[in-house]
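User: I'm new to structure prediction. If I give you an amino acid sequence, what do you actually give back? Let's try with this one:
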Amino acid sequence: MKQPCLLFHGFTGGPYEVEPLARHLRESGHLCEVPRLPWNGDSYHQLKSSRWKDWVRAAEEHAERMTSEYGTFDLVGFSMGGLLAAYLSVRYPVRRLILLNTAVIYISPGRMLEVIREEWKYKRKLNLFKAKSTPLSATWQFTRLVRHLKPELSQVSIPTLVAQSEKDHVIHPQSARYIYSKLRGIRELHWHPRSNHLICLSDDAAALFRQVSAFLDKE
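Assistant: Good question. You get back a string of structure tokens that encode the predicted 3D arrangement of the chain. For your 219 residues, that looks like this:
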């Protein structure tokens, strides 16, 4: 039986962001859990009233349950979920860590303008609408979480795979280099030239899934 795997979605997102990867891992024999976390984008009021420490506690509860049920487990974190995954990997029996477009350095203003132009050009207004519908208080809590958890990266000593989209319109690609430089254990860095922020739903998804499977299956 392969190692069970816990997957975290990103800020204001949902399980759909990492579910394609979970599906791929299940097909190769992994037991995967993809919880809907309290920082999801379904409830404006829940987001408005929550604090970054609530998000950390919720992540810890899932790690505690995985530990009690399976002992060791693998952990995947996407975007903000990546920072929480790194934090947990220092405190729980995580065997291998996967960080996808992890939130450390935000996008440059110039790059964001370019994305906004593209959004209007193709009338894909989903991301703009989402930004407007996220409470400012939640965005502030997100920045506080990044500030508090970023130093945890230098404590991570387990094998870690870092994957970064080169066309990410939310997280600056420099984030991946920063993370890679801070990790203390065996690590891999993979770039995905055709991918935007939602890397598991992108043109490079198949290549990413192969990389993750190979990484998890290494002796």
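You can read the tokens as a compact description of the fold. Here is one thing that stands out. The beta strands are 5-8, 32-33, 73-78, 94-100, 160-165, 187-192.
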